[in-house]
Specification:
Length: 530
């Protein structure tokens, strides 16, 4: 077995949601979380365990030409550790039947508050603001993003291969939000980005419009949220940074309803959804600036804590003296406590990305003290803490947490078997790990992360041919689900380790991609000489 093999162990959380038509029809609210549609929406709790005894392991790999690259089964490359959907299931906290005033509330800065107060007390149309008080976004790219899978398949396999390409483009769907949802559900994220650009051009926010004034609505801001979320998913970092920058922290006066009294009267609150605020706070993390993201998230947390305190004090969320009934107040507090949890989970992800495991463990332990967790949710949190201890190389601490949860050998759940498998990996007991993952896969045959981890164990025990066969079998059984970038990276690297005649099987994978997948896969994962 070639010792220069490095694969990350991955886990798909049991609560992840695959895109389905019935979910598509549900999402009509401005707070719709676009990530629920992401293919690979699996939320990993733990991505890699490397034995602390092999501290020089990564340096060995970097010097090797034949290696299996690091990978993760994520919606992005943020090393996402914990996601709200892991613990909160599919409950859409922002979609409860609630007074819009409480859902949309936000506390503006003092400068923004002064501008909004001035607008509210002045004659309509008499205000003229300088550009510093306006949000002026626009598209950073002109034209459509190309379908590289299609062009690569034609290049290597010929024009005839295009017959098998049956993928939606921005022109094939209705030119509205429904069309966007259809494209996202089909895994055509580039086409969705292209359509979002067309729709934003209607608001005079198209290409070349950055730093030019335009009007905003909740609809236009939801389009931007969708577009930036998709750019994050596709790791289009330069475009993402340029297009997100004009929004700042969504605190300019034109982000609030009262900026447009002719349209919304005296309606209070922010036109931008809480999900949009959270995404903008996290974007620096995806751009390699985790410290900035952490600062953003703690500022967001401070504001949410203040909103909760205001509601608890019988005030409006922004501190205004409004009459709020007891039941309404309780609903509002419940909503914003749910949002607080989402921020804390984002902070945990950010801390893990920065390798600040002490902060991550501290937050998770505090989360365990929150009331109202179900037994399953609390177990997932404790499991997360155990896996962080494995990150730190503290196998005994992780074992105590895992054993306290897994009281009986019989009747273990998929997650519990995954925990045991990962702990075995940390102890270099790859055969034991394989048996744990195999048992979990028997319970959840569609879990591609378990198949991957089994293949990784085979690679580490020198069974390269068996690992390749396992990958190929998974793809043959379910190409739509199994053709994911991490799996493709691993199998193509395994081909390179197995034989110098590896181009043909790679071209077969390209043909499979061309037939079964949308436009979102990074074609470089096939490691073809482009």
């Amino acid at each position: 077995m070639n010792s220069n093999v490095n694969c990350k162990m991955t886990e798909r959380d049991e609560t992840s949601v695959e895109p389905k038509s019935e979910i598509l029809e549900e999402v009509t609210n401005d707070e719709a979380d676009i990530s629920r549609y992401f293919e690979n929406a699996s939320r990993t709790i733990f991505d890699e365990i490397v034995s602390p005894k092999k501290q020089d392991f990564l340096e060995v790999q970097r010097s090797s030409g034949n290696q299996i690259p690091d990978f993760e089964l994520l919606t992005d490359r943020s090393n996402e550790f914990l996601k709200s959907s892991v613990l909160l299931g599919n409950e859409r906290l922002d979609h409860s039947v609630m007074n819009d005033m409480h859902r949309d509330i936000w506390i503006p800065s003092e400068q923004t508050r002064k501008v909004l107060r001035s607008i509210a007390t002045s004659t309509s149309g008499s205000n003229s603001l300088d550009s510093d008080n306006l949000t002026m976004p626009g598209l950073a790219i002109q034209g459509d993003m190309p379908d590289l899978i299609k062009t690569t398949a034609i290049h290597f396999l010929g024009e005839d291969e295009n017959i098998h390409r049956n993928v939606l483009t921005a022109s094939d769907v209705t030119q509205d939000e429904r069309g966007l949802r259809n494209l996202i559900q089909a895994g055509c994220y580039k086409a969705a980005i292209n359509l979002s650009g067309r729709l934003l051009a209607v608001y005079a926010q198209g290409h070349g419009k950055i730093n030019q004034p335009s009007k905003h609505t909740p609809h236009s801001l939801q389009l931007w949220y969708t577009r930036l979320a998709l750019l994050t998913k596709l790791r289009q970092i330069d475009i993402l940074e340029n297009e997100s920058k004009p929004f700042g922290n969504l605190d300019k006066p034109d982000m609030y309803f009262t900026f447009y009294p002719e349209l919304y009267g005296t309606r209070p609150g922010s036109m931008a959804s809480f999900s949009f605020r959270l995404l903008l706070a996290e974007i620096p993390l995806h751009c390699g600036k985790p410290k900035q993201a952490l600062d953003n998230l703690f500022k967001l947390l401070a504001t949410v804590n203040q909103i909760i305190s205001n509601f608890n004090a019988g005030l409006g969320g922004d501190g205004s003296r409004v009459k709020v009934g007891t039941a309404e107040q309780e609903d509002a507090v419940r909503l914003w406590k749910g949002r607080k949890l989402r921020i804390l989970m984002s902070i945990t992800n950010c801390a893990v990305s920065m390798k600040n495991y002490v902060l991550a463990v501290d937050i998770l332990e505090k989360l365990c003290d929150f009331p109202d967790w179900t037994t399953e949710q609390l177990d997932a949190l404790k499991s997360s803490i155990g896996r962080l201890h494995l990150f730190l190389g503290d196998v005994s601490a992780a074992e105590k947490l895992f054993i306290s949860q897994h009281k009986q050998e019989s009747g273990l759940t998929v997650r519990e078997l995954m925990d045991r498998g990962l702990m075995a990996v940390a102890q270099n007991a790859f055969q034991d790990a394989y048996r744990c993952f195999q048992a979990a896969a028997a319970m959840d045959p569609s879990n591609i992360a378990l198949i991957n981890n089994m293949a990784v164990c085979l690679l580490y025990t020198g069974q390269l041919k068996a690992a390749v066969h396992l990958y190929e079998s998974a793809i043959a059984k379910n190409p739509v689900k199994s053709l994911q970038e991490p799996i493709l990276l691993n199998i193509c690297s395994s081909y390179e380790l197995h034989t110098i005649h590896c181009e043909q099987p790679k071209l077969h994978l390209l043909s499979q991609l061309n037939r079964y997948k949308g436009d979102a896969i990074d074609i470089h994962c096939l490691k073809l000489a482009l």
